[in-house]
Amino acid sequence: MTPSPPLAPSLLVRAAARLLERGDVRGLDPLLGHLTEGDPSQLHGVMASLADWARRGRFPEGARSRFLRAVFSDEVLGHALWEDVETEHLLAVAAGLLRPADPVDAALALRATEQIQRLATGDIGPANVRLRGCVDLRRRLVKGLGGRAQPELDFLIDALPALTSAVNVAEAVSLIEEGLAAGDWRPPAGSGADAPGPAGAPDEELGRLERLERVDGLERLERLDRLLDALVARTRAEDPGIRSQGYQGLLRIARAVPPQEGQLRRIASRFIEAAEAAQEVAASGDPAPQGAAGQASQYLRQMDELLARWAGAGATGAGAARRPPGAPAFRSEEWKAWIADEARVAAREEEMLRGAGTAAPAAGPAAQGPDAASGAPPLVYYELDVVLGAAEDEVVPGAVREEAFQILDGRRLEVVPGTPVSYEDRWGTRLTLRITKDGPDAPKQPARYRLNSRGVLFVGLPTLTSVQGKDLSLAWHETSDLFFGSRPVPGSGSSNYRTLHLAASHERDGAGPPRDAGLEGLWAWFRDNHLLKLPPEPTDPEVNGVLTVLKTLKLKGSAQLLRQLLKARPSVDIAVQLHELGDPAGLEHLRSELSSDVPLKRLNAAVAICEVGVPEGVEAILQGYEKNAALLRGHGYRIVNALDSFLQRSAPASPARGTALDFLAERLQEPSFQHRAFSILQRESGREFGYETARQMDGQEARIKAMKAAIDRARAWREETRRGGRQGEKE
Predict the structure, then answer these.
(1) b or e along 47-58 (b: 16 or more beta carbons within 10 Å of the residue's beta carbon)?
(2) 457 phi and psi, to 5 degrees?
(3) Cα first-last separation, the chain
(4) What is the DSSP string of 270-290?
(5) Any idea what DSSP says for residue 189?
(6) Is residue 562 helix, strand or coil?
(7) CA dihedral in degrees (60, 65, 70, 74; nearest 10)?
(8) What is the pLDDT of residues 699-720, one digit of tens each?
(9) Are the CB atoms for 248 and 209 separated by under 8 Å?
């Protein structure tokens, strides 16, 4: 009898996964074997099957223990594919199965946290870990093991010097900043330092608590020293991106940790230390803002401004006063003299503590920011996670589905400026935000705030921004036996993630949605009261902010508001938005603009009509060109792009397609049309006329000759299609 050939690994994985899916535990051990072997070509499917099985929670005797031992083994953690979303999913599911009271589970969790730290700091070799994923997993592991958030700060500070990419350094700084804003600087729960003494406590008990507070203060300062030293070291890295992140990190952390007792001198001294290297870079190269020297000068000015604010106008004699022309970006000698005067620094710290409204350093430096006593009114903050253009098979369960987008998650938070707020998103990830006042209010301008020291918020203005600090992405990944790990396939991401922000006053927001409204109710309230309802007398920034968001979201219910705005503030942009929503008022307004006495208004309307695929826009451009060719040449790039948009959106049999192609072919010699016109004609014809080859020729005479030949070939093709009756169709 001939033995059967062994099954291919992929078939074994599929067979084992099918068994587990049916509840047959015989599929578990083969999948765990593949998991520990770390074959990158099989890991995605293996992890997905194991996570789905574990989430169902039906474990025969011993199966849960075998699963946990394998998932948290050195082999699996040391070879994890951190770019694969299933990795974090599997680890999070496994962490949720740990039983804190079980000594075996506790030992597993402890080993796993140690291994994660070694991975992040590079102790076991280079690994493409994701710090936020590591932090979230450590948080899950220590949740029931007597720990709390504070060790995460030590973990990140220890990892900071070992990171080898600017992206990872920026992520580490963001996470540290969030931890500081959340109050993770405080001592661990149960230490006694964060607990008030009992009523009637004897003197010796109060003395013990005071000693604990002093010990906590020393630990806090030691941790701050390590963090600042790590950031200063990053400013001296050879990689310019890491250097830049080191300076940005110093500035962000300094803003996130308002100086308190013992901290002001530490931060100021590190600024001076980092500034010395930056001054050399600033004096040695191109001063352009985007160059290394220009960036160094910007960081020096920002550090100097922060020190001036902390020192106070009377602290140095210069303080926050305006610097004269030609003064150095960073006043090293003044700041060195200032921090050398211990009495002056101590007095300034005392003044700042009184101004912040706190006299207890043990409460944490992030507990009160400089804005907490600034008189800035409380705000209502909306944050919605949006995915644009999701396909039908990408609809997320529980999301709010609109025609052009989905709302995946959202929250309404009441925020006191300068005070951090922590929350969990729908995936259980803990996030922290702090909104701080950014400069004094300007007349007739919305109040300006900063979100987590980075993004800018204007009160009353909704904004769509790229996602920061959250893992929202969708793309295909590939694995192979030829390389380790998984990597995203370029261009495979089909969705576009954004965060929709709004900071509003309580007066403007009213009562807000009901507490039990859920995501759908939250979105409906936000849509009806903030996107589709402007104040009685809206300012230009408020109108423009709403229009920008509506243009991206293409919200069907916005037609009524847009019609009102079009009547009150007629514009081409509003008319185009209305047309794309299917409202005839948009095209009516654009057509009326074609008869304007102002040539530029007629051109803007013609371009807009052409861009939305309406044939009369092409005719209007041709008529305008005949009347004022000089004006249209000055807008040649806009015109050719409008014609390109028309060709891509119009019906194939439209006679105006031929008119547009003729217009482009006749103007191939004009510089303002040539390059884009050739690319359009080549796409429409499926031919290569030799234009690119002609452009790259060295000799002027040869280049002119080759360019003329390319133009002749393009025009010959156009003549050929006209004779064949194919006015505007692709061949």
Answers:
(1) bbbbbebbeeee
(2) -120, 135
(3) 62
(4) HHHHHHHHHHHHHTTS---TT
(5) T
(6) helix
(7) 180
(8) 888 888 999 999 999 999 988 8
(9) no
Beta-carbon count within 10 A of 683 CB:
13
Distances from the Cα of 169 to the Cα of 374, 465, 473, angstroms:
32, 22, 20
| pLDDT tens track for 211-258 | 333 334 556 778 888 888 989 888 888 888 888 888 888 888 887 775
Alpha carbon dihedral 707, 713, 717, 719, in 10-degree steps, equals 90
Residues of the chain below pLDDT 70: 1-10, 40-41, 83, 85, 122-129, 143-151, 181-219, 258-260, 282-292, 294, 313-327, 354-376, 390-395, 427, 439, 453-454, 467-495, 725-731
Alpha helices per DSSP H over 257-331: 264-282, 292-311
Helix-helix angle 599-611:636-649, to 10 degrees = 30
Asked whether the beta carbons of 388 and 404 are under 8 A apart, the reply is yes
Token pair 């929350």 in the structure block, residue: 423
User: Which of 602, 597, 634 is closest to 619 using CA atoms?
Assistant: 602
Q: What distances in angstroms separate CA 373 from CA 80, 368, 380, one per listed residue? A: 47, 8, 18
CA–CA dist 140, 98 (Å, integer): 9
Q: Which amino acid is at 252?
A: R
Characterize 658-667 residue by residue with b for buried, 16 or more Cβ atoms within 10 angstroms of its Cβ, and e for exposed.
bbbbbbbbeb
Query: What global pTM score does this model have?
Result: 0.57
Count of Cβ atoms closer than 10 Å to residue 156 Cβ: 25
**Distance, C-alpha 310 to centroid of its chain:** 30
Instruction: Work out the burial of residue 331: count CB atoms within 10 Å of its CB; fewer than 13 is exposed, 13-18 middle, 19 or more buried.
Output: buried
Phi, psi of 723 (to 5 degrees): -65, -30
- CB burial string 442-460: b at 16+ within 10 A, e below: eeeebbbbbbbbebebbbb
Contact indicator for 309, 279 with CB cutoff of 8 Å: no
Cα-based distances in Å from 186 to 196, 262, 371, 574: 14, 16, 20, 51
- What residues contact 551, with CB distance under 8 A and at least 6 apart? 573, 577
Q: What are the structure tokens assigned to 429, written together?
A: 């990830």
Half-sphere exposure of 80 (CA within 13 A, CB side): 29
| Total H helices, total E strands in the chain | 30, 12
The rounded Cα 276 to chain-centroid distance in angstroms is 32
User: CB under 8 Å to 709, separation ≥6 — which residues?
Assistant: 690, 694
Instruction: Tell me which amino acid residue 503 is.
Output: A
DSSP string, 413-432: EEE-TTS-EEEE-TT--EEE
Place of tokens 């059967």: 4
CA distance 239 to 26: 51
Nearest Cα to Cα of residue 554 among 562, 566, 542: 562
Q: Which residue has the tokens 């993630």?
A: 497
Q: Which residue has the tokens 């004006």?
A: 631
CA angle 392, 393, 396 (to 5 degrees): 90
